[in-house]
Amino acid sequence: MTQYNILLAGVGGQGLMLLSQVMGDACTRSSIKVVVGAQHGLAQRSGSISAHVRIGDAYSPLIAYGTADLIIAMDATEALRYVEYLKQGGTVVMNSRMMHPPLETAPIVKNRQEKLTYVTLEQVKEQLGKVAGRVIDIDAEKVAAEAGNPRTENVVLLGAASALSGFPIQSEPLKESVRRVVPERAVDANLKAFILGQQMV
Amino acid sequence: MSYQDLTDPKPKKAFMLCNEAVARAVLESDAKVTAFYPGSPTSEILDTLYLLSADYPDLKMEISSNEKVALETVAGASMAGVRSFTSMKSVGLNVASDTFYTLGYTGVNGGCVLLVADDPHAHSSQSEQDGRFFAPTGHVPMLEPSTPQEAYEMARYAFDLSERHKILTVIRTTTRVNHQYAPVEVGEVKRTPFQKRNWRDVKRPYFTLSETARRLKGEALEKLMKIEAEFDSSPFNKIVNGEGRIGVITSGVSYLHTMDAADALSVKPHILKLGTTHPLPKKLIVDFITKLDTVLIVEELLPYLEQSIKAIAKDADCGLKILGKESGHLGYVGEYNVAVVSKALSSVYGVNSPIDYEAVLAKAVELKSVIPKRLPVFCAGCPHRGTLWALQQAIKGTDYVLNNDIGCYSMLQLEPYNLTDMMICMGAGQGISSGMQHVVNDRVIALIGDSTLFHAGLPALVNAVHNGHNYTLFILDNSVTAMTGQQPNPGSDFGPNKVTEIDIEAVVKGIGVKNVTKIDAFDPKPNVETMKKAISQEGVNVVISVGPCALWNDRKKRAAKITIIPNKVGKETCKSIYACVRDFYCPAIQLDMETRQTAIQTDICNGCMVCAKLCPVSAISSTGGA
Does the structure show a pLDDT above 70 at A42? Predict the structure, then answer.
């Protein structure tokens, strides 16, 4: 079967579900088969969330372990959290931003004499490199600000992913779906974010 | 899908969430009355119909106080002759089950459809309850979709089936079906005007007792026999022809995992995918299994299909080897995926999987040992954070038992609190407290949210006051049903229709609670003494902690163009005491690793000021919007 599997990962509140909407809408309008399994979870923000985007001849809404062609992560730690889905030699496109959860901060302040530190981007990249063929980290917060709207970090990463060779959806239908899915007042900034993201790869 | 696509009456193909496809089917089926209590993974069905009801005024949509009331509302509308619909999560049907079982006897009139969603893996539920058993014990038919397209088609068919046989019809889903998106082809929306009718024109008896109950039960079983014959040739039961004499019988999302697993293993079993799972299409099943030597039953949770098929095979006397849970090929716990089904299939065929899924998982566990867990926490600006901080202080030095309930505040069982002794189901905290206060020497504390109080908490409070019990009840009133997506509840001042806001304080006082105190959730320090006093008093004491859900309130502010102003930490004043981190766990607060001072992520903070009020050196203040 020909398929392209994308695992989306992030922290609740970062607009991850919008990306699966944009990709699914673009596939549907381009007559490409697609199924998305979303982990909606509960409404609370700041938890770990994911969505499985399966393009081509796929049935299950969940990617099998070791078969994702690509991970797109809104937070570097979240890319590593779902590494079991990535295939050997697969690609990771991730935000270099790391939101440190309270469970990471608490032990640092409770054992202050031990001078513990947060996990670093370098550590995450090193671990991902043991499976991934290519890890692309982007300061999406900065690029989104350049695009004129700090809430476009998600679309920056989508733009970057769309520039990868083998990415199964064309840019034009993706941009058209961005127009259809994001609120009208945010369309221009999102399209700019998409193009700036493309230029990062 | 875009809301434009959803509300546009024209037929189309669009990318949709399964729950949206179901809502569209309800709209196209001309259902007139719908009622719901929200619950994951079904909440988006009611969220979508809430939006659609604004565009289609002939569609009545209500958010009910609980699932039982919702089912009764749609059953009443059906008895009066219109089509009606409700959906609920697995455990919601427990609440509605008293009504459900008798409706199985009385039948309905207008097409009446109930969607119930199980949650294998207990992603967002207190149990992995298997709701399929409701259908056979309730004497009603059940359909099980695998995909959004099928959910849409089954919902359309369910109204027709229900109306023709005058029988309540159940659509059973699981989380991975409800939360699946795919392109869906939908039809045209053709609504008829809402017309009131006279009871005398549609009237027939809907009551049961002794002789009537026995007669109606017999009639329901006869209807099911007719439906079984219809199901034997239903297009919802599909055979995928394979090779050899090995087969698979499956349904729901397990069918999708099976298709991928068979492909990955390069094996070709004959697959019977069942879409009508009560009554089972026995003739079809017998035809399928008599061509096989071995069949693997792939289904999550309990061996519902497996045991039924064993019985059918015994009657057919076909010498079939039936594998599944009882043979140890598949498990009873958690949800399935391609790896799980692949393992069972590879064992049946004696072939190896090209991917060693267990090795992939083991390597991943090792690789991610460097990252912290990201468990759910209260949102930045959540009113519960301040309330629970005060409660933590108030119970210090007291022997207590804390009985919690279902809502965002269920997270009290997690870090940093670890405070929950009991949490069973909606509204159970008070009833359990009533029992405990008879027996324990400790102070008994119960906790409940506004929506859960209206849902199942009030009968227990009436009981406690009437019987003179001793416990303290904390009502966490955040104005909405927050955890499921901030839907309105009876205490809210908004809803899909014109609503009357129910005043919790007046209700509690009306029941006869003498000691009632209302506190501001965002002012935690003075609340400690108030809570201590309430906990130490005899009788039923109620503390109502008021503060709006942050997600809901922030959205409201943005809509009204009110700027949300975050806080900042003063570099000069912060002494790294970490009061804002310890026992507080706000996701907006992290450390600046260079100075080891705390730093606030301004795109997450909503300026609730609780951390500022608790900082002993007043290092946190508003950015003032700069």
Answer: no
Q: Is B586 on the interface with A (CB under 8 A)?
A: yes
Contact A60 B357 (CB under 8 A): no
pLDDT of res. A45: 76
Q: Is the ipTM of this complex over 0.95?
A: yes
Q: Does residue A43 have a pLDDT over 70?
A: no
3-state secondary structure of A71: strand
Which CATH number describes the domain made up of B563-626? 3.30.70.20
Q: Is residue A201 part of a domain?
A: no
Write out pLDDT tens, residues A10-39. Answer: 998 888 999 999 999 999 999 999 999 998
Question: Across B175-269, where does the E strand assignment appear?
Answer: 180-186, 238-240, 246-251
CATH class of B383-556: alpha beta
With CA atoms as reference, report the closest residue to A48 among A7, A87, A107, A5: A7
Fold held by B3-230 = Rossmann fold (3.40.50)
Give the closest residue to B185 by CA, choosing from B154, B159, B158, B152.
B152
Q: Which residues of B touch A99 (CB under 8 A)?
A: 587, 590, 601, 604
Give the number of domains in chain A.
1
Q: Is residue A153 part of a domain?
A: yes
Per CATH, B3-230 and B563-626 having the same topology is answered no
Question: What is the distance in angstroms between the Cα of A144 and the nearest Cα belonging to chain B?
Answer: 13
CA distance, residue A164 to nearest chain B CA (Å): 24
Annotation: CATH topology of B238-365: Rossmann fold (3.40.50)
Q: With an 8 Å Cβ cutoff, is B502 touching chain A?
A: no
Give the C-alpha distances (Å, rounded to integers) separating B124 from A40, B254, B456: 10, 20, 19
List, for residues B80-124, the tens digit of each pLDDT value.
Answer: 999 999 999 999 999 999 999 999 999 999 999 999 999 999 999
CA B463 from centroid of its chain's CA atoms: 27
Question: Choosing among A17, A39, A46, which should be mutated to test the B contact, i.e. which has the most B CBs within 10 A?
Answer: A46
Which of B:390-409 have CB within 8 Å of A?
Answer: 408
Q: Chain A: nearest CA to B381, how far in angstroms?
A: 11
Side-chain half-sphere of B247: how many Cα atoms within 13 Å? 25
Which among A24, A42, A67 has the least Cβ separation from residue B124?
A42
Residues of B in contact with A112 (CB under 8 A): 576, 578, 596
Q: In which domain, by residue range, is A37 found?
A: 3-196
Distance of residue B16 Cα from the nearest chain A Cα, in angstroms: 9
Instruction: Give per-residue pLDDT as tens, B144-193.
Output: 999 999 999 999 999 999 999 999 999 999 999 999 999 999 999 999 99
Q: Name A35's bridge partners.
A: A54
